[in-house]
Design goal:
homodimer; 190 residues; 8 strands; globular; DNA-binding
Amino acid sequence: MEVLAHHIQKFIQVSEEELAEIVQYFKRLHVSKKKNLIVEGEICKHIYFVSKGLLRKFFINDKGIERTTEFALESWWMMDVLAFKHTSTTEFHIQAVEDCEILAITGENYKLLLKQHPSMEQYFRLIFEKAYGAMQMRIKFLYDFSREELYHHFRAQQPEFLQRVPQYLIASYLGFTPEYLSEIRKKNIS
Amino acid sequence: MEVLAHHIQKFIQVSEEELAEIVQYFKRLHVSKKKNLIVEGEICKHIYFVSKGLLRKFFINDKGIERTTEFALESWWMMDVLAFKHTSTTEFHIQAVEDCEILAITGENYKLLLKQHPSMEQYFRLIFEKAYGAMQMRIKFLYDFSREELYHHFRAQQPEFLQRVPQYLIASYLGFTPEYLSEIRKKNIS
DNA sequence: CGGAATCTTGAAAGTGTTCAAATCAAGTGG
DNA sequence: CCACTTGATTTGAACACTTTCAAGATTCCG
């Protein structure tokens, strides 16, 4: 819970007492490597905060191939926002890449939390502003770079993932095949 | 201003009096076709609400080609969130595709508005939630579909744009060349 | 040690781009 | 209202980037 509490304090001013109340809306989950928090077709009842470990979000296309759309590590939020907002079925899987400690909050508790603690409106406004901003830049990169350039950019900007995530998931995230990643790496034996 | 007022009321409960105060934080702009609201390299001082017309956001890549990353029509917000948050230079241009009526708010007024009218925290939290959700789905489509499929999907989901936006901008938005769009269209003379 | 999962290799096939030129459409000034 | 100029769309051939498939090499884990 301390990781979340600390994260909230980075964004808004809130007393220790209120913070103690806030974190009680969350429940703690342990998820071991390769286990799913939610799978395609299920009603999306929670959003997740990573206090330890690394999650990925992916879907399976009509050829049966997994495409990873997001990673989340410590202090990142992970969710299917739209499915959560509407309490509808998700098209995604959320899976642990490493053993994880997760804080989860249900839709009901989310609404209650925002009602009882209006300063959390500001916290989530800031979180979503930031997440939206990151997505706008991500779209730009997807439009600007070739697959090979995406790899070099990812490698330069987020080297921690290369340490913690197997190659075939990196390829899945960058939108190409493991074979092609292998080829790119061969060219840059540096 | 009515368009914005109406939009706010769709998301939060707010009295007519407060609404009247809220809209005063915005200034009204007329932007004629092909004119820019902001260009690459400028400090991003505003976010924009489209009350009439159609905007696009684009950048220019190293080959000098424009890539359109977003469109916005009536009642949509348009912004470079990150540059706005940090009052930094933007990498984007925001341009009118048609003659537009725009409501703009500065960073200072945005902060003031949120401070004076806390219910606007909720409004923007909901706006960003939704925008973030839309982006998550957009990323999924970009990962899931070929360029040709993206066109068919766009055509099916947002036909109003095909009416209002020239083909070369559609191509620019879908991430391919006008020539290729032409080829796709030829195959589907239906 | 053995088996499964991951990573690499290379050739053939596909998807989308580039370039140059032709056609079509639209707005402007006379 | 026509003629002209510019902007937008189409065509086709050659090329580049990325995938597919099938196989082999390597690493990880029980």
